[in-house]
């Protein structure tokens, strides 16, 4: 019980966007799943969770290069889910240049919108997304093959409307910055 309480309390404190909550604050209740890689197939966790989307996915990424994750996002959009992707400025300069690349296909898919944080040198370092206002995925793993399959990283999946809502509120703030650039295929 203590372990779950502590993980849940810490998870909520990380995603409110406000000052950290005191450790004795009442925890956010929700299902928390914690995975460590490499060796557990972190990519498959993302593909499965993205595959559950019926309405919306809002994703923040320092790096978005994992082909399986990009294909899962494209599939979600083709099923009618609204997909918004907010990327680091480096992603804009280093993304696949080929018009037939997976990222370009995602950006061309109906229901997909992407923006890039304009402030160079000021990273957009989150690696998180919400699905249907119900699930929040976060952690240290970038959306890249090496980040999810080879490096020492973690993924935290929280099933909680409160946690997903706290992330979505912060996402809306980042998404609405006037300095953002739209990312086109």
Explain how this protein is built.
There is one protein chain. With 185 residues, the chain is an alpha+beta fold. The chain has one domain: Endonuclease Chain A (Endonuclease, Chain A, 2-Layer Sandwich), CATH 3.30.870. The chain contains seven helices and eight strands, in the order αβαβαβααβββαβαβ. The protein has an eight-stranded mixed sheet with strand order 1-7-6-5-2-3-4-8, with helices on both faces. α2 (42-51) packs parallel to α3 and α3 runs parallel beside α5 (102-108). The N and C termini lie far apart (48 Å).
Task: Give a brief rundown of this model.
The chain has helices at residues 2-15, 42-51, 67-78, 89-94, 102-108, 145-150, 161-175; strands at 31-37, 56-61, 82-87, 112-116, 127-131, 135-139, 153-159, 181-182. It is an alpha+beta fold and 185 residues long.
Shape: globular
Mean pLDDT: 81
Into which percent range does the helicity of residues fall? Answer: 25-40%
The CATH fourth-level homologous superfamily: Endonuclease Chain A
Return Rg in Å: 16 Å
The residue ranges in which pLDDT falls below 50 over 5 or more consecutive positions are 1-17
CATH architecture: 2-Layer Sandwich
CATH level 1 class label: Alpha Beta
Integer count of domains: 1
Number of strands: 8
CATH topology: Endonuclease, Chain A
């Amino acid at each position: 019980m203590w372990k779950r309480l502590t993980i849940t309390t810490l998870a909520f404190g990380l995603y409110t966007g406000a000052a950290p909550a005191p450790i004795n604050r009442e925890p956010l209740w929700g299902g928390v799943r914690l995975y460590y890689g490499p060796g557990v197939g972190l990519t498959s966790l993302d593909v499965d969770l993205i595959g559950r989307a019926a309405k919306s996915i809002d994703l923040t990424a320092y790096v978005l290069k994992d082909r399986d994750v990009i294909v899962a996002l494209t599939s979600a959009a083709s099923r009618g889910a609204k997909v918004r992707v907010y990327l680091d400025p480096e992603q804009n300069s280093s993304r696949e240049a080929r018009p037939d690349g997976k990222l370009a296909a995602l950006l061309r898919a109906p229901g997909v919108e992407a923006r890039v944080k304009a402030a160079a040198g000021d990273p957009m370092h989150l690696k998180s997304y919400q699905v249907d206002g119900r699930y929040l995925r976060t952690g240290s793993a970038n959306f890249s093959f090496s980040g999810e399959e080879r490096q020492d990283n973690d993924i935290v999946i929280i099933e909680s409307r409160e946690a997903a809502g706290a992330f979505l509120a912060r996402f809306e703030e980042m998404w609405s910055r006037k300095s953002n650039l739209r990312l086109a295929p």
